[in-house]
Amino acid sequence: MKSIPVSTTINGDPYEFLCAPDETLLDALRNRLGLTGAKEGCGTGDCGACSVTLNGRLVCSCLVLGAEAEGAEIATIEGMADGDELHPLQRHFIDHAALQCGICTPGILVAAKSLLEKNPDPTDEEVRYWLAGNLCRCTGYDKIIRAVQAAAAEMRGA
Amino acid sequence: MSLDEYQKREFKQVGTRVRRPDGVDKVTGRAMYGADATAPGMLTGRILRSPHAHARIRSIDTKAAEALPGVKAVLTGADLPAQEDDFIRDVQDNCMARGKALYDGHAVAAVAAVDAATAKAALKLIKVDYEILPHVTEVDVAIKPGAPVVLAGRSLENVPAGMSENVTSHCEFGHGDPAKGFAKADRIVERSFRTAATHQGYIEPHACLASVSSDGKADLWCCTQGQYFVRTLCAAIMGMEASQLRVTASEIGGGFGGKTTVFIEPVALALSRKAGRPVKIVMTRDEVFRATGPTVHTSMDIKIGMAKDGRITGAEAHLRYSGGAFPCGTVDMGAQAAFAAYDLDNVRTYGWNVLTNRPKEAAYRAPGAPQAIYAVESVIDELCQDLGLDPIDVRLKNAAKKGTKSSYGPTFPDIGLVATLEAAKKHPHYSAPLAEGQGRGISCGFWFNFGGNSCVSLNINTDGTVGVTEGNPDIGGSRASISLMAAEELGIDYDRVRTIVADTSSLGYNDVTDGSRVTFAVGLATIKAARAAVRVMCERAAKIWGIDADAVEWKDGAAVPAGPNAGKFPPMSLAEIAAVSFETGGPIAGHHEVNVDGAGVSFGVHIVDVEVDKETGATKVLRYTVFQDAGKAVHPSYVEGQMQGGAVQGIGWALNEEYIYGADGRLQNPTFLDYRVPVASDLPMIDTVILEIPNPGHPYGVRGVGETGIVPPLAALSNAVSRSAGIRLSELPMSPPRVLKALGGS
Amino acid sequence: MRYVAARTAKEAAGLLAAEPGVTRVLAGGTDVLVQLKSGLVEPELIVDIKKIPGIGDITAENGGFRIGAAVPNAALGEHAGVVALWPGVVEGANLIGSTQVQGRCTMAGNLCNGSPAGDAVPGLVAANAVARIAGPGGERDCPVADVPAGPGKTTLKTGEIVTSIFLPARPDRASDAYLRFIPRTEMDIAVASAAVSLELAADGTVKAARIVLGAVAPTVVVADEAGKLLVGTKLDDATLARMAKACEAVCKPIDDKRGTVAFRTRTAGTLARRAALIAYARAGGKK
C-alpha cells in the first residue's frame, strides 16, 4: 500500500503526515502525530472516545480515513485549553468529579464543547442525547451532566 | 480482626471535596494510558484467536508467517514453559492455548512485526489445524453427565458423584436447618433464576508495552489494577525472577475487576524476548469481549419461607455458576453473600462451579454477589407482595446487625444495614406517589470488602511538602483520598501532599486494586506511615529543644511540648522541622508495610422507579436513589461516583447487557453496538445518600465503597419491572423481547 | 488498497467500473470504516465521493428537495425546509448512530449499505423518494424502494453510485413519521421499525397512506394492505388494530441477537400504529 501525503490543520496548526490508504484519522493522530488524547475504545464508532471535530462537525476519528483530513480543519482535546488556562468544561469536569478513570473524558469534553457551541443552554435531556454516543462506564453520567450544565451556565455568564 | 483501630475524631480535611491530582492530565489528554506509551524500535504484536468454541489443536504451521518480511517473532503455546501450579497454568493457558482451544476467541498464536499491517498479514499466514470438538456454553447443559467435557481431571474431591466432569468445585455455607424453618413458614416461595454473563465494559482495551533485554531484565508497561500481581504471573510464566521484571502501571481506563489478571502481558514479554525488541500489544474491542473476563453466568434455585409478620423462617439457595473454561471460585463468594444481609436461624447455600466453553471469568465488581443476591431479593419481594408487607419493613425485621451470626460464618461487628434501610424508608423517594403503570423496586446489597497487602512510603521534603508512594493503580480517585488521609494525619494542607503510584521496583508488594480495598487498606498504611514520620519529626524537635522525645507531641501539623513540664517552646511546624532535617539526622520519612485485616463489610439499599411499555417490553428508569454505608467518606464526591457508577452498571446488567452465544458456540455480540452498556440518554440522575457507620477496623472508620453499589440494582430493577408489568421476572437481562414474551405479547 | 477522491461522478463511476477487485464508495464512511476495521472486507479501491461538486448540497426542486449523496444527516436535520416537508424522513435519518455518526453518515450511504434495518430507508420508501444513479453508462433515476436487494445487497450495477436522493413535493394536509424500536434509547440498530406517510382529505379522513416496515424482512417491506385499511378513516382504535395486524402479516423477520421473530413482528405492528398517529397529527388531523 502506497502512503498518501496529507496536509491538514489541527488545533489551528498546520500538520503534514503520510498515512496508509486504510489508516484511520485516529491512528494517524495517535501514531504519527503523537496526539494521543483521542482514545480508541472500540474502533467502530460505538463509544465516542476518539471524538474530534472535522470542519466543525463532531465525528468519531476512528470512522474517518486519515486521507480524508486533506485540507480539513481538525480540533482535538489537545487544543481545548488555552495554554495554561483550562476551558470551563475542563475545569468543571474536575470540580464536579465528572471523571473517574478518565479514558472517555477527552471524547466527552470535545463532544460537550461541540454541543455548547450549537446550543449554549441545553436541557439535561438534550445533553444526554447529544452525549449518547460517548460511553462512560465509571460515572453513571450523573456528574458529567452536572458538569456540562455548570460549564454551560458559566459560559453563558449566568 | 483488629477492631480497635477506629477512634472518633473531628476531621479537618478528610470529608472535603478536593481536586484530584490527576484531573488536569485527564481533561487535557495528557494522561498516559496503556496504549499511549511508545519505545524506540517498538514492534506491533497481534494475536491469532480461535474461531471455534472447542477444538483440539493438531498443529500450528508458522513458517510462512515467520518468512514474511517485517515479521520479527512468532509465538505459540509451545514456546511457553510447562507449569506445575494449576493456577499459573490456567492463567498461562488462557493467554495462549496449548493443546486445545477452549472458547471462541482463545489465543492460539501471536506475532510481532514492524507495523500493524505486517502483523495482520502474518496472522493470516499462520495455519492452525483444528479438530473441532463438541462444545457446551450453557451452565445448565454443562452440569449434566454426558455433556462435552471442557477440561478433564479438574474436579475437586468435594464434588458429589454423578455430576459432569465439568463441575470443578462445590461449596456449602449456613447454619440451622432450613427444613425446620420452612415448616414454620406461612408462605414459601421457591423459584429458579438465570443471569447472563456480563462484561466489565471498561472503555480502555487491554494494552501493554514489553521490553525484554538480552541480559534478562525486563520492563512492562500496562493498564492493570495490580502491577505486582502482573509481575507475579508474568515472572512465573516467563521463568524470571521478580527483581528482574519491573512492571509499571499506566493510567487505567477502567477495570472494575477485569484488569486484575493478565491476558496479553506474558505474550508481549515472550514476543519481546524472541524478537529482541520492545513489543506493544493493544487489544481490539472484539478481542476484549471474546477473550477477557466476563462474569460468571448463572442458574439458581432459591427457596425462602416467611411468617405472616415478615420474619424469614428458613432460606436455601442452590447456585450453579460458570466461570468459563477454567476452574473458578466465584460461586463461593456468591454462596457466602446470598443471605448476608439477614439475621437468620435456618439458612443454607450450596454452590457449584461448572466449566463451559466461554472465556475465563475475571472479577467484576463484587464478583459472585450480584447474581445470588438478585435471586434472593427477588424472592423476598415476591413474599412481601404475597403477604401484603412493606418491602423495607420486612428487610428491617430480618436485617443483620451487630452480633448477628452471618449466614457465611463470622459474627458481625458494627454494620450499617439497619441505618441504611431506615434512611431509605424515610427518604422522600420511598413515599413519592407512583403513576399508573409505574413500579417501584428495592433491594439490599452486600459486599465483604477486602484488606490485604499494602506498602506505603511517605517522604517529608525539605520544603515542607510530602510525597506519598503507594502501589495501587488509581481508578476512582484514590490518589486524592490517600493524599487527604496523609494531610489529615500530618496536619498540613492537602495541596502540599502528592501521591504517586509506584512501579514494582520502587515499593514492596501490594495486592491488586480490588475488593474495594484501596481507600481502606492503603489508607490505613498511609495513616501509619504518616504516624511513623510524625514520630521522627517529634524526635527531631526534641533534639533541637534538648528535651526527651517522649515529651513532644504532634498537634495541628507541628511538634509541641507535651504539657507544661516538657518545657516552653513554640510549636515547630512540619516545614520548619523538614527545613533543618539535614542538620538533625538526615531526611525524614515514614513507611508502613502490612497485610491489613479488619475490612468492614458494606451494605447498600437501592430504590428505583420504572415504567414498562407493555406493548414493547421496554423499561424506562424514572428515578433512582442509592443508599450506602461508606464507613467514612474520605472524598464524598468520589464515594458518590462509586455509588452512581455501580448502580448504572447494575442497571445495564438488569436490563440489556448479556453475552449471547450462537449454536456454533461463538459469541454473537462482541461489540459495543450489540453488547449494550447504558448510554447517557437511558438514565435519570442517580441520587445518593451516604451513610457513615464507622468501620471499627480502620483509624478513620473507612469501609470500601467500590463494589456494593453494583449488587442491589439487579433485584431492585427486577422487582420494579415485576411490579410495573404485573408479572414476576426471573431472568436477566430483562431485555424487551424477554419482558414482552413474559407479558404474553409475543 | 487505493484511496481516490473523485472529482466528478463520472470519474467515480469509471474508477469503480475499471477495478476488478472489491471496491467501496466512501461517503460518510460510517459503515465502510466499520467493515474495514472488522476485516470483513478488504477493498482494493475506495472512492471518496465527497469532493464531487454539488454532492454535499440540498437543493429545492419542483416543490421537493434533492439531497446530495454526501449530505451528512446532521445537515439534513438542520435544513428547515426538508424538516417541514418530510419530518418522518428526517427523523429516521437523524436516528442513525450517535451525534458523531450523524456528522458523517448519509441517507444515500444508509440506502446503499443494504441493511434491512437502516433507519433512513423506510421513510424514504414511504415518501416514494427517487435515487439518482450515475454509472458508466450515464445517469438514471430509480425509486428508492427498488435499490435494496437483500441484506448487504443492492440492485446497483458495477460502477454505479447514488449521487442524490429526491424527495418529492407533497400536498397540504400531508405528513409522515418514523419510529423504530431499540433496546436502549440510542446507539442501537433497529429491531423493528415503521414509517408512515399520510395524506388527509379536507374532512380529516385519510386519503392516502403508505406504510413501510424495517428490520422485519430481507429488505424493507411496503405494507400495502395495512395502508389501505387507513384510507377513509380518522385512525380510530379498531382501524389501527386491524392495520397493526395487517403489518404483522407481512413481516418475515429472523431470530437473532437483536430480537426474536415474534418480538419483531409484534413490535412492527405496534410501531406502525404509533407512527400513524404521529403522522396523522402532523398532517393536521384531529380525532
Topology:
The complex is a heterotrimer of chains A (158), B (746) and C (287).
Chain A (H helix, E strand, L loop, with lengths): L3 E7 L2 E7 L5 H8 L18 E4 L2 E4 L12 E3 L12 H8 L9 H14 L5 H7 L11 H15 L2
Helix pairs in contact in A: 2-5
Chain B lengths: L22 H6 L14 E7 L5 E7 L1 H5 L3 E6 L9 H10 L4 E2 L5 E7 L2 H10 L1 E6 L6 H4 L24 E9 L2 H6 L3 E9 L11 E6 L5 E5 L4 H12 L6 E5 L15 H11 L3 E4 L2 H7 L5 E10 L5 E11 L7 H8 L9 E8 L14 H19 L3 H8 L18 H10 L1 H4 L6 E10 L4 E9 L5 E5 L7 H13 L6 E5 L16 H28 L6 E4 L2 E4 L10 E2 H6 L8 E9 L5 E12 L4 E12 L6 H20 L30 E6 L20 H14 L5 E2 L3 H7 L4
Parallel strand pairs in B: 1-12, 8-27, 10-11, 14-15, 18-19, 25-26
Antiparallel strand pairs in B: 1-5, 2-4, 2-6, 3-5, 7-15, 8-13, 9-10, 9-12, 13-14, 16-24, 17-18, 17-23, 20-21, 21-22, 24-25
Chain C lengths: L1 E4 L3 H10 L4 E4 L5 H7 L6 E4 L9 E4 L2 E5 L4 H5 L2 H6 L1 H8 L4 H4 L4 H6 L8 H6 L3 E6 L2 E6 L4 E3 L2 E2 L6 E7 L6 E8 L10 E9 L5 E9 L6 E2 L1 H7 L6 H13 L11 H22 L5
Helix pairs in contact in C: 9-10, 10-11
Number of extended strands of chain B: 27
How would you sum up the global shape of chain C? globular
Average pLDDT number of chain C: 97
Q: Which CATH first-tier class of the largest domain in chain B would you pick?
A: Alpha Beta
How would you sum up the major sheet of chain B?
7 strands, mixed
- Biggest beta-sheet profile of chain C: 5 strands, antiparallel
Computed CA radius of gyration of chain C, to the nearest angstrom? 19 Å
Order of helices and strands of chain C: EHEHEEEHHHHHHEEEEEEEEEHHH
Category from helices, strands and their pairing of chain C: alpha+beta
CATH superfamily of the largest domain in chain B: Aldehyde oxidase/xanthine dehydrogenase, molybdopterin binding domain
